[in-house]
Inverse folding.
């Protein structure tokens, strides 16, 4: 895990060093959102819940800022990560996050774009929960 964290943090630092030139700003913030999301996922995997919340919150903030033009797929993926984190923690925030994920899913067809294995697990798990909650709608 140390080497994963090393390279994830190195990626974040490299992305932060990209200037604010209009030709690169969209790519910069797209990469920042992914870097923070990946660090959040790593924190979840190593049970560092506060770090996970911090990194995922930064990723979500970037992905929801219209100034940065970050693809909405990242926002949905981060919300999936929050849902998984809070589901594991049995937090009441889980309900809020899962409602947002469901709302976004209904409005667009989105597939996770990063960390495929994690996202497949999360998507499959959330789909099975949805099927249990609404068996006639799935």
């Amino acid at each position: 895990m140390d080497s994963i964290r090393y390279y994830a943090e190195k990626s974040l630092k490299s992305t932060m060093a990209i200037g604010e030139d209009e030709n690169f700003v969209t790519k910069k913030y797209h990469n920042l959102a992914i870097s923070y999301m990946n660090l959040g996922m790593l924190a979840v995997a190593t049970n560092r819940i506060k770090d996970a919340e911090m990194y995922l919150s930064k990723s979500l903030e970037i992905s929801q800022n219209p100034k940065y033009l970050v693809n909405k797929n990242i926002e949905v993926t981060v919300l999936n990560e929050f849902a998984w984190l809070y589901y594991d923690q049995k937090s009441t925030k889980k309900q809020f996050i899962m409602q947002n994920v469901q709302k976004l899913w209904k409005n667009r067809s989105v597939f996770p774009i990063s960390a495929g294995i994690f996202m497949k697990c999360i998507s499959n798990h959330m789909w099975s929960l949805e099927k249990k909650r609404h068996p006639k709608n799935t």
